[in-house]
Each structure stands twice: as C-alpha cells, then as structure tokens.
Specification:
The chain has 21 helices and three strands. By secondary structure, it is an all-alpha fold. Helix 17 packs across helix 21. The longest helix has 30 residues.
Length: 500
C-alpha cells in the first residue's frame, strides 16, 4: 500500500501545483494585471484549469484509489491514511463526472465575466454584466446535471463548498435565525440610535492600512509566508501554507472597512498557514469547508475585533495613528459605533445583527435562478424588493445593490450560505474556547492572541480537510452545527449596547 500511496501523493502534488498556479494567476488578474490582458488571461486560465482537471481524473489516479481503498478496509476510518484516501476518492468521483472541456469553458467565461462585473459595478450598469451572468447560470445548470439525481438541484452547488450540506438544512438554519434576527432589528429600532459619525471622518487610507497591518501581525499572520494587497473585493488565496495572499480595499464613505476586511482575511490566512505541513500538495491541504473557513474569518473580525477587550489594547494605538480625528474620543463611544445595528446596503459592511439577512437574500435568489423561476433581467427588481422586505431599505443604484458582490462573476454560486454557517460556527468555537481559557478577556486586553491562535491551530487549523465539517465542529465543541450560541451572542451584545 505504501508504494501506491507514494505514487498517488506524487500525482496529487502535480495536480495541486497546477491548481495553485491557476490561483496565483487569478490573484494577479484581480490585483495587478492590466485591463487589456483580460482575454489572454482567460485563455491561459482555461488551459491550466483543464490540464489540472485532466491530470486528476486520469485512469492511473482511479486505479491507485481503488487499490488504496481496498487496502484501508478494516482500518480506523478516521486514521490519517484512511482519510487521505477517502477525501481524495470523494474529490475524484465528483471530478470524473465533469468533462475537462467544461472546466476550461467555465474558467474562460468567468474570467471574462469578472472584468465585465468590475466595469459594470464602476458604472452602476447591470446591463453590462447581465449577458455574462446568463452564461454563468447556464454553466451552473449544466454542472448540476452532471450530478443528477439530487434531493434538490442546489445541493450539487452547496456540496462544492460545504461537503454533505443539503439545501433543506440551509433553509432550516435560515428559518431558525431569521425571526430572531428580525426581532432584534425591530427592538433596536425602538431604542435611541447609536451615533457612528466618528467612523465617517476623513481618515487617511495609508493610516488605516498601517493599523490593519499591526493588527494582522498581532493576530499571528506570518509576513514571511504571506502579503496583503488591494483588490475590488477583499479575499484570500494561496499556493499552500507558505504563500498566502490577502487583499483589502478602501472606501472613502466606509473607511474602517479597510481595517475589518484585513482582520477578516487574516482569519482565513491564519487557517491556511496553520495546516499541518504533512498535507502539503495533497487533497487534505486547505480547510475542511468554506463554512469552517468563514468561522475563522468571522471569529477574528467580530468576536475578537469588535470586542471591548480587544480595543482596550488597540485604542491608544489607533488614537496615535489618528490624533486629530480620535484624540479626544472616548473608547466607549468608538466601541458602540463599530457595533451599531443599522440596516445597510452593502453586505461586507453590514453589522452582525443584519448580516445573515443579506446572505439569505442571495441564497434565495440563486435557488430561484438555478431552477428557472427567476430571469436575469428580473434580478435588480427582485433584489430591491427583498432588500426592502428584509432590511427596510432600497438600493439607490446597481453598484450598491445587485452588483456589489464579485461572487457570481467568478462562478461562486452555492457559496453564500457558508458565510452564515461561518457566523454560527464562530460563536460555537468562541464559547468552547472561553470555557477552556478563563483568562480570555485578560489576554485580549494585553494584545496577546497567542493562546487563542494556539488553540485554533490545535483544534481546527492543523487538520486541514481531514475531518468532515460537521464532524470537526462536533469534535471541538461537543455538538453539531447549532445556531443557538450565535443567537445568544447577538442578543447579549444588542442588549448591552441598546438595552433592547
């Protein structure tokens, strides 16, 4: 078996190298590539993605997996070898259903769509992006057909990001969260509103960038194995644990988004940097799921980065960075401002009490688009209607409405639910960490995040994809994914801020 395993790892190493090459090409496309390179880059990405796919679904890989699956029969199914074989075999079985020509076509179409989205967003003109989105929806319907039959067509898309998750489970989770979050918003609306005026002053972009870098460093981001740049939409990518790229962006109207986006993406990056080196260039490299990944980014951004103990340490640092804007401001005023509950237009700027409603809107529309119940031309109208129904506000233009997210342009349908899963799981992890580390708040006040990071490394990061997401959550917290800790956290936070 060792000979077969060594050969499989060698072949998977080449597959992972090609996938990472594509990721770096995509990073360059979003960060540095000149606009005129779009067509050439789309073809280049199509070729690399196709070659990686063909190499992975080769006959030799299939034969090695068949032999290895026989070899691990009778072993502990949670052993390292058994899980490596099981995860690789699962990926292989899915990949063999998808033609290499489709993979290349998807890469080419989404590469061009991304550039169309950027231009459409800049001009707030949905009609410029609509034809590209039509093609992407067509691709997704074809993709779903490769996995028929399923309990629900959307299951095939969810499974790419959250293995084993079903549409019905997502809808059940949303049904548990929606009424209590809407009730929170109603209760806050009945109380005097917290002012966030000081968050919208003329903060220098470089100052916010520099402060974000200090925070990321304190969290534990290894700059010898990573970097930060700017892009139209903040995100994280990597070519393995030793080369992790994060991006942020600056919005003059929401300047502190630069800082919180850096915290968020640092959470993703810490996960990648913490994967056990044994899993490099294998199918176990990376995160257990996107929901688990989002739990890391939301934990560092919100449960740490919006907490009072965190700011008791960093407030003097921020005041020193912006003495004229914040020199005379009390910490408590700033802390209330960054935790203000107010329905807003932009998902990535949404407060914790309203954020999941943004996610629900998008998931519901994806399901309707996939099933043919919603046409692309009707998207802006329905988007605005759902924003009004869920949040009581209507976007004044497409840039702040239907065109605000990059995800559809790069083919990420089935992805949005993982943001809500991440919120839910982050609260479960926070409760568990708090129970094993009673000095948590004291450590945050000192700017010491080493205990938290070490715990996450041990319980989550090092395992990569070894455990299924539900199994990992249960292993760490003692229960499956559960919305109640998140709802307790939100309701307690709102009660403290508003007495609501």
């Amino acid at each position: 078996m060792n000979k077969n395993l060594d050969r499989l790892n060698a072949l998977m190493g080449e597959v992972m190298d090609l996938r990472h090459t594509a990721s770096m090409l995509e990073w360059d496309e979003r960060v540095y590539m000149p606009r005129g390179g779009a067509q050439t880059r789309s073809l280049l990405l199509a070729s690399v993605r196709r070659i990686a796919h063909e190499k992975f679904i080769s006959k030799e890989v299939g034969e090695l997996l068949a032999a290895l699956r026989t070899g691990v029969d009778g072993q502990d199914p949670t052993s390292e070898t058994a899980r490596l074989v099981a995860v690789t075999a699962r990926d292989y079985e899915k990949a063999t259903r998808v033609p290499a020509s489709f993979v290349a076509e998807h890469a080419e179409i989404t590469s061009m769509a991304q550039h169309a989205w950027q231009e459409a967003r800049a001009k707030s003109d949905f009609t410029m992006f609509a034809p590209h989105l039509e093609k992407i929806i067509g691709l997704k319907r074809r993709y779903v057909s490769f996995f028929a039959p399923t309990d629900h067509p959307y299951d095939a898309l969810l499974d790419d990001y959250e293995p084993g998750l079903k549409t019905k489970e997502v809808e059940t989770l949303f049904d548990a969260l929606r009424p209590r979050q809407q009730d929170l918003i109603r209760r806050v609306a009945e109380r005097p509103q917290v002012s966030d005026r000081l968050l919208h002053l003329g903060y220098a972009e470089q100052g916010l960038w520099d402060f974000g870098v200090q925070v990321a460093t304190a969290f534990g981001f290894d700059w010898t194995r990573g970097r930060q740049d700017k892009s139209a939409h903040p995100y994280t990518t990597d070519s393995g644990p030793d080369d992790v790229r994060i991006t942020t962006r600056f919005e003059a109207q929401q300047p502190f988004m630069t800082v919180f986006a850096t915290m968020h993406e640092t959470g993703h990056a810490l996960y990648v940097q913490g994967v056990d080196p044994r899993w490099r260039r294998t199918a176990l490299e990376g995160g257990a799921s996107l929901g688990i990944h989002e739990s890391q980014s939301r934990l560092w951004e919100n449960l740490v980065g919006r907490s009072l103990p965190f700011w008791q340490h960093f407030w003097p640092v921020l005041q020193g960075q912006f003495p004229s804007e914040l020199g005379g401001v009390a910490l408590e005023e700033f802390h209330r401002a960054i935790n203000r509950v107010q329905p807003s237009l932009i998902r990535v700027e949404a407060d914790e009490a309203t954020y999941n409603l943004h996610v629900m809107l998008r998931v519901e529309m994806e399901i309707a688009m996939l099933g043919g119940a919603l046409s692309v031309n009707d998207l802006p109208r329905l988007w605005n209607e759902k924003m009004r129904d869920y949040l009581g506000i209507v976007p004044p233009d497409a840039r702040r409405g239907i065109l605000q997210d990059i995800h559809w342009s790069i083919g990420l349908m089935g992805y949005f639910a993982t943001y809500t899963l991440g919120n839910v799981i982050s609260a479960q992890l926070w409760e568990r960490f708090s129970s094993v580390e009673p000095r948590r708040d004291e450590q945050l006040r000192r700017g010491d995040f080493s205990s938290l990071l070490a715990w996450l490394r041990r319980e989550i990061h090092q395992h990569g994809r070894r455990y299924e997401p539900q199994a990992l959550v249960e292993r760490v917290t003692g229960s499956r994914i559960d919305p109640l800790p998140y709802l307790r956290y939100l309701e307690r936070k709102v009660e403290e801020a508003y007495g609501a």
